[in-house]
Specification:
Elements: H1 2-25, H2 29-54, H3 57-81
Helix pairs in contact: 1-2, 2-3
């Protein structure tokens, strides 16, 4: 069973690598943020799989904190990228 969990974690790490390419290449800020969000989500999944495989319940707490930080980072991005602090960062100027 542990081999399956390690294999799934390895596949998710490939997803993280692909998302980091999107973070580096862009082309827009929203694309970069989506890449960062994907890497955070896959990182949470990897941590949860490894916690189960190695029977370390404390790693689940780390995964939950990472998930919370990823959500807050997305909110901060939208606030910082929009003109009025409450809108769509991709919206055109009036």
């Amino acid at each position: 069973m542990n081999e399956l969990l390690y294999g799934a974690a390895g596949l998710l790490l490939l997803t993280v690598a692909a998302s980091l390419v999107r973070v580096l290449r862009g082309p827009t800020r929203a694309d970069r943020m989506m890449g960062a969000q994907l890497s955070a989500t896959a990182g949470v999944a990897v941590l949860m799989l490894l916690a189960q495989a190695q029977a370390l319940p404390a790693v689940l707490d780390v995964a939950l904190v990472l998930a919370l930080l990823a959500a807050l980072a997305t909110v901060a991005f939208v606030k910082a990228a929009s003109r009025d602090g409450a809108g769509d960062p991709e919206e055109e100027a009036p």
